Amino acid sequence: MGTMTEYTSRGPTSLQPPEDITGGLFGWGRTMVRSYPLATDALLAAALLGLSTFWLAGSPFADVRAAVVQTALIATVAVRRRQPSIVFLLASAIAFAQWLMGFPLLGDGALLIGLYTVAAHEPRIRAVAAAGLLEAGVIMAAVKWEPAGSVTHSLLFLTATVIAALFAGLTVASGSRYLAWMDERARRLAVERDQQATIATAAERTRIARELHDIVSHSLSVVITLADAAAVVSRSDPDREVMAEVSQAGRQALTDMRAMLGVLRTDDRPADLAPQPGVPELSVLLERVRATGLAVDFDAVGAPFPIGAAAGLTVYRIVQEALTNTIRHAGAGHARVTIRYDAPLVKVRVADDGTAAATATDGQRGHGIDGMRERAALHQGTLRAGPAAEGGWLVEAVLRLDSRAPAVAT
Known about the structure:
Layout: H1 19-22, H2 24-35, H3 37-57, H4 64-78, H5 84-101, H6 109-121, H7 124-145, H8 151-233, H9 237-261, H10 282-290, E1 295-301, H11 308-330, E2 334-342, E3 345-352, H12 356-360, H13 363-377, E4 382-387, E5 393-400
Parallel strand pairs: 1-2
Antiparallel strand pairs: 2-3, 3-5, 4-5
């Protein structure tokens, strides 16, 4: 097998987020914020309080009242995600009391954080209303304190910070909605993928059951015919009665099987009365494949032994599905089919020189492999499919059969 790996329809897909989103420093920070929101906000509040306290200690407004108001204002940052609108209104009330007391504070940045939180987690109408309320506070602060040197400059500067906080929150909200949509889409695609695989497996099992129904029906019909003939030519009455009972038992078994398995014929088409194909019909199949332009070589290795109609049909279907996938998906120019007889094993090998990477992610190819694997399992066998060590795509199946089983005419 070399470096060939087994391929299934549930292999790697593109349903997972890119590594640059889930990994690295950004991914770690995103995970920490989502996993520990209260601790993250408390850390942010502590950092802002330390910076604001350092600024206040060197300002002419340093006193106990200013320290208490600033601490209360920044404390709202620690619980900002609990009830963003209510917390923002509380911070606005504290800031209004600060404005009445007549001293500016660096801790007023908590209001911008509050606005950002409302815009990121609340409906847009609330975000706009919060921005309007904060803009009113901006006008009051610009007129009273002129932090940028003049009313006009202060108004422009503070308004710019309000707009920046608002749009930053709206951008994060939009990104969160997009990521949520992507997560839901990935979940639905995964569900649909599993459903398609289940449906394909069920359809293949139904097809196998229908074909086995045809094979067993034909075999029982032969048994009944032989039993009837034996009963006619027999000269002994006891033997005649025994063969008549064999014939009757065969008819009853055939009737019961048709009653139970006939429901598997879900289509409205009449039953195909032609014998099911087997190993001898591979030559016809290969000629049809060669007519498509794909060069196919065939080798039979070892001494053939009777394998029965069911196993012969399995060999035929595996070769048929593997070559069909090669024609449809691999872009190959040459394929080789090898049947190796090593009683009680029959080994089937189909290799092509196509592009394995293109076929490995093909959903239809995956369902076809599931079907081949189902067929191989009927005969205690295994099937592996994947890129071959020498290039191209390789399908190998091993069927374990009873070499003493007589062949059933098809």
